């Protein structure tokens, strides 16, 4: 690590290319913490999206029509509006109106931190996509499989829980993996409400050193690395859950 730091420091003095985050220990620690926060946002957002999406998928199967309409309205709203606009609406709109994002009169911290608002925003936005992905997965399960479950004595919900949903989840994995990739990339919008993730920290660094080009390259490579790790995990899960005879 010392050799790497020395190399980039000498590179700066010789060429003017200032990758300060790679030789300045304080900035390196700050940037690594920003990466950690970005990963934490992605994991919490993924968990929230999966829970909301699965719940909405089940609710769309109930026979109570008004509940199905409500879920459909939620899905259409969050699928067809920009994620950043949704975050602003949650943080500056609802958060300010209900005093969830504002400090108290005596300086008490807000009820929900900006970090939590980003997690909520990611969960709501991508939960709508997960609901549609799982719905498509359920429809892709062969009709004969559902009929076989009924012939074995499974009720509607029992067949859905024990047979249809496990198969639908496996069928949906590639699309869910793509959705997860979008969540990882969308953590960058946390920058808009001052959550100190990787892009926000990079902005602080290039504001001080005026090394915008260098830091943007570092940020892009950081997200490329995170995407590679998440993609590898998804592929391993796909192989682990692969059902012989289904798909490739």
TrEMBL record:
For this UniProt record, give its keywords in alphabetical order, as a comma-separated list: Amino-acid transport, Cell membrane, Membrane, Transmembrane, Transmembrane helix, Transport
Annotated ABC transmembrane type-1 domain ranges read 35-231
Pfam families assigned to the protein according to its UniProt record, in alphabetical order: BPD_transp_1
Q: Kindly list the biological process annotations in GO that this record carries.
A: amino acid transport
Q: What is its membrane topology?
A: Multi-pass membrane protein
Q: Name one GO molecular function term.
A: transmembrane transporter activity
* Protein name, as recorded: Amino acid ABC transporter permease
Species per Swiss-Prot/TrEMBL record? Mesorhizobium zhangyense
**Lineage, top ranks:** Bacteria, Pseudomonadati, Pseudomonadota, Alphaproteobacteria, Hyphomicrobiales
């Amino acid at each position: 690590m010392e050799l790497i730091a020395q190399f980039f420091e000498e590179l700066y003095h010789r060429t003017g290319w200032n990758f300060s985050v790679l030789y300045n220990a304080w900035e390196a620690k700050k940037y690594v913490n920003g990466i950690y926060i970005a990963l934490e946002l992605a994991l919490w957002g993924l968990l929230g999206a999966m829970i909301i999406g699965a719940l909405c998928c089940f609710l769309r199967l109930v026979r109570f029509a008004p509940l199905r309409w409500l879920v459909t309205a939620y899905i259409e709203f969050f699928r067809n509006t920009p994620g950043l606009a949704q975050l602003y609406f949650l943080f500056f709109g609802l958060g300010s109106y209900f005093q969830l994002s504002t400090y108290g009169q005596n300086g008490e911290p807000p009820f929900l931190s900006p970090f939590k608002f980003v997690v909520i925003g990611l969960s709501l936005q991508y939960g709508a996509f997960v609901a549609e992905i799982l719905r498509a997965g359920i429809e892709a399960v062969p009709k004969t499989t559902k009929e076989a479950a009924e012939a074995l004595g499974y009720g509607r919900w029992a067949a859905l829980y024990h047979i249809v949903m496990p198969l639908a989840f496996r069928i949906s994995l590639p699309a869910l993996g793509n959705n997860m990739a979008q969540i990882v990339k969308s953590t960058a919008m946390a920058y808009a409400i001052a959550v100190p993730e990787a892009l926000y920290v990079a902005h602080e660094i290039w504001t001080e050193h005026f090394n915008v080009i260098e830091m943007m390259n570092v940020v892009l490579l950081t997200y490329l690395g995170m995407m590679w790790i998440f993609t590898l995990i998804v592929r391993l899960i796909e192989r682990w859950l692969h059902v012989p005879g289904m798909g490739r």
